[in-house]
Queue: 4 jobs
Job 1
Amino acid sequence: MSTDQTERAESLPSVPSIDDPRPQPPLTEHFNPGTATDPDVGARETSSLTVDGEEVSVGEEATIIDALEEVGADEDLSALCYYDREDTDRIGPRSECRTCMVETDEHGLVPSCSFPAEEGLTVRTDSTEAEEARSVNLDLVLSDHNLRCTTCGKNGRCELQDAAIEADVEVPRYGVFDDRDEYEPIDESSPFIQIDRNKCILCNRCVEACNDVQVEGVLRIEGSGPDTRIGFQNGADEMMDSTCVSCGHCATVCPTGSLVEQDYTDAATIPLPGFTQENSIGKTIGEDYDGQPNPATPMKGNQTYEDDALGEANDD
Ligand code: SF4
Ligand code: SF4
Ligand code: FES
């Protein structure tokens, strides 16, 4: 390179070479792609903004949804992939579902769960565009779900059901899972948790709960396109062959009936004798796990069911 060229190159703007100041999440390098490590998306400093004409101040790291919560404007938003409970701020936001869209004067439509609460922002939850975006996106989420609420163990405590009722959804414009495709067999292999992927909306909450909160590294989102699904990091086909320790956190945070505690799986809520989630959907898979001696799956700790059962029998 000539002296002229070197001088010209040095005078051009370039990205400075500095260390990434963001804290590195623990254990990330051991997790496979598809697991959760959320970027820091909140505001860098305290800010004041306007929500539906009302002024509100929020602290560092706040996103727009925090400002909405301050003024009670979040009640119109379902925010299905965002889980905000005490001590669980490591779950989301993932910006997967877009049911939390709001309109801003400055940036147009943005997902409120993951957009920083910038100083001076003017936010509208009630603009036509924002309401339409939330409605379309909720229907898109519903199109990934089978809506068999009356035979679902989560009936009455399901966030997707609440969202659909609050949004007055009568007929989802893109249909529901029942309209289109074949059912995936229900995974009932675990003594504690049932997985019904026909109800999964791929919100990623369970993956984060398992990997980032419990640090168990069991779940992942795998596949692509219409074949995207919840799977296991050890490549197991069923939960019983995964490394799950049956802590139940994934079922706690699941906003649908996709992950349900086994005690609730047959909690049919319409008064038809013998009509349960299993027989309304059809085929199920799984083994008889009566006598399962260990709350963790056999794969955890390289134990086998037979080894444990034998050990217990010998102790008697
Ligand atoms: S129950 Fe199993 S899969 Fe669910 S969060 Fe706990 S370890 Fe992970
Ligand atoms: S199983 Fe539940 S928590 Fe996990 S991605 Fe599906 S809907 Fe979300
Ligand atoms: S809650 Fe904001 S994108 Fe899902």
Job 2
Amino acid sequence: MEPVLIPHVHEPHAFTLETYLAHGGYRGMRAALAQAPADVIETVKLSGLRGRGGAGFSTGMKWSFVPKDVSKPKYLCVNADESEPGTFKDHVLMERNPHLLFEGCVITCHAIGAKVAYIYIRGEFYHVQRVLEAQIAEAYRAGYLGRNILGTGVDCDVYVHRGAGAYEAGEESALLESLEGKRAQPRLRPPFPAVVGLYGCPTIINNVETICNVPLIFERGVDWYKSLGPDKNTGPKLYCISGHVEKPGVYETTMDVTLRQLIYDYAGGIPGGKALKAIIPGGSSTPVLTPDSLDAQASFDGLMKAGSMLGSAAMIVMDETTDMVWVAENLTHFYTHESCGKCTPCREGSDWMLKILRKILRGEGAMRDLDLLLSVADNIGGKTLCPFGDAEIAPVVSTIQHFRHEFEHYIREGRSLVPTPDWQARQLVASH
Ligand SMILES: Cc1cc2nc3c(=O)[nH]c(=O)nc-3n(C[C@H](O)[C@H](O)[C@H](O)COP(=O)(O)O)c2cc1C
Ligand code: SF4
């Protein structure tokens, strides 16, 4: 398919307003601002756009939850935290096509009755922040942001806020806390942010890619949008592919693509002709799949059917040399480090799982440790304040489900089933 989210990404000045306008930019915004807010929301609902940040919730539906009769200001927060292992699509969008995001911000603000949008960007994305701020200034100068945009009477200010660099800051209510200058710890819900969000005011939080889809719907029409991809999984989609593939990178296609096509056609297959062993299809919070699922559709519904999730569409590919016990330890280490510590099952459980996994890696495991791991995971999943708890058990539960024999081999033999040269170095890591 012709790329529409990152269409001229390889042009040297792809990110400039001049390039954007030369490719027909800001047409979607003109069309949307000519419509009443309620009609804009209805159009987005009809397009079938689902949020690209992980949960795949209907974007138009989410916008319609913003109360119309309150006098308080309303806000849009663009979630550009992008800290999940394997995920790197949003920073490409912002770095190479920032005006698409600004266009989407103005349309979204118009739809929900907001005049201010904050782009909450991951702390480490310093370069992207500079690109965004320079291009925001350009957009103001040209009248695409600010007061009375294009003479329509619509006002919209866009600010970039750099986070402190925490995975949990991407969770929507933790993001709001962080924007307000507090620690990035989630809030109890309800009330949901659409009703009580930033500074206690109605707030919509959407992923960068979600907002970038919005102008395309108005520029090309709902029928065009719905023609891309399968029913209920419409629109263009970015996939980040990393790990054991010839050509890691960000690829744009539609959600009728299969995992096999993404790995072998788009990313060039596995180097050295090695066999595929495992796939994490949607970022580290989604359960591992095996090559049996290669023909699954890489859509929200297709991956759910296959026993995993589309998540952030960040596919991590692992070949036959991968030690799955090490994978479980590696990701659990990440989650233990990133837990915000607010609720007990997550704070204590992640550390407990890590200790057991390290015991197994050191060659000191017992068979009952596998059931203990699953039992600890069971006491975390669905029992935490935010979905981080479900995310952190995914690597543990799914690797035991699909690769239990590797864990058992470690326990029996004291070493990995996979003859990796550095397994002794891993044992050393596990002793800490
Ligand atoms: C621990 C955690 C981290 C998250 N990180 C991100 C992130 O970096 N970017 C993002 O868009 N959504 C992230 N999410 C999902 C957001 O909470 C929220 O659902 C999303 O931003 C909504 O946008 P959407 O409706 O456009 O998908 C995260 C969720 C959790 C639980
Ligand atoms: S699940 Fe983890 S990250 Fe989420 S609130 Fe509880 S301690 Fe914090």
Job 3
Amino acid sequence: MPSRLAALALAALLALATGAIAADSGLVVSDPYVRLMPPGSPNTAAFMSISNHSNSDRHLLQAESPVARSVELHTHVDDHGVMRMRRVTAIEIRAGGQAELHSGGHHVMLIGLRQPLQDGQLVPLTLRFDDGSSLQLAVPVRRAPAAHGKH
Ligand SMILES: [Cu+2]
């Protein structure tokens, strides 16, 4: 239903413009982006920082997006000097702290892209947390930041 989608997109854009906030959970997402990959790449990843302004630890449990066949939470592990991605069941965001989803660390993996993503395109992404709250984001597609942005 196009009108519902448009409404969702608008809500997501507004959330993005103001910093997406899950009102009762105190979670704020900043600087989200989906990495632009070479044409034909089957997968990509979303990165962001999630701040927790509440008094209790939170966990990101699940992410969903219509652009990919499946979405998983991943981390990177050092396997005898080779960095490999591994699926995790949750990403912790400590009370008063923040979780950094960045290249080489935790990320949201978009697996099996249904269509090639374009530079600047907004990708709908829903994050679900252990307190039952969720955030709906419109995450821009862009190139990975310059090397100084890596950790
Ligand atoms: Cu991954």
Job 4
Amino acid sequence: MYDIRIEPFGETFDCGEDETILAAALRNRRYLRYGCKHGGCGTCKVQVLDGDVEITASNFALPPAERDAGTILVCQSYPVEDCILDVGAMNLDEDEFRRGDATTSRAMTVESVTALTHDIRRLVLRHTPDGSLPFVAGQFVNVTVPGTTAQRSYSMANGSADIDRIELICKVLPGGLFSGWLTDTAAPGDPVEVSGPFGALAVRLSHRDLVMVAGGSGLAPLLSMLIDLSRKGCERPISLFFGARTAADLYVTEEIAALAADLPLTFVPVVQLPDANWAGATGLVTDALAAARESWSSSDAYLCGPPGMIDAARDLLVARGVRPQNVYFDAFVSTGETAGV
Ligand SMILES: Cc1cc2nc3c(=O)[nH]c(=O)nc-3n(C[C@H](O)[C@H](O)[C@H](O)COP(=O)(O)OP(=O)(O)OC[C@H]3O[C@@H](n4cnc5c(N)ncnc54)[C@H](O)[C@@H]3O)c2cc1C
Ligand code: FES
């Protein structure tokens, strides 16, 4: 057993050699913010102040620069000596830490499944009288794939004021377990188990502009944020870059255009393989980002999508003046990727 001291709360709990630090915290009835539990979401990042840990291979959510600076994911880290950890990056207050795990699991029902593109579905889940699942725009839930014990992460795409339902935008992955259920089996009225909310992605209070970059289904949490910002009458200028392979892979563009009527929002859809009818930006989403401005130094950045897009957008924006600590992101890592395939 090793001692794990958690700062800034000054509390110590024990952790076995074969136990992750997250598992030890939860066993000791303390809460550390977590999400996917498989190294994919980055919610459980903390800073090692002293001591050493062994890290498993699944660290997709941790850019090498952060790892080199002593950041770890507690869901993937096993202590090899006593450690002191700073959980400041988790945005966690002392009450939450001492209260233990308050994450809830809810029975919900499928309201509808709608095709937005050939491989993107909008899944609407309605709360049962069992209770609602309040969330902050940017957060995600873990959905248990019906008929299995496997869970998959999906970000809310609707506004947080909708207390009767959650809306998810799901990419259909060939051979994917949840994807298969969604396309072949899911029907209105089906029961679904949902836990959460998870994740620390949320619009931070700031006077700076917002630059948002989405790839594929990564638009989901950013759409949720835009809906909430619109409801709050946000006056901060927002630039949203949405990358897709072809024009047919773009979706909810009319909903975004409607939000732009209430928000100081510049919307730039970017198509990698344009056809003759496409008159907008072309190339990778980062090409459009680079072409739009020499400097993004007055902005906070919110990024969501595949890990490769996140890395490229993050590097570009930091090189163009965004402070690294003002880049917030969720990489949509699949279980296949964290399994090392
Ligand atoms: C924080 C977070 C939020 C997310 N939000 C969203 C969202 O809003 N929308 C969205 O679309 N996605 C989101 N994702 C990504 C989504 O959770 C994953 O893509 C998820 O894995 C899809 O589940 P699935 O069951 O359909 O596919 P999986 O069963 O997980 O399979 C994914 C792919 O890997 C392959 N695969 C799986 N296991 C193996 C194996 N052992 N060997 C070989 N191949 C394998 C499958 O064939 C498939 O192509 C999010 C991810 C995270 C971490
Ligand atoms: S909970 Fe650790 S990376 Fe998702």
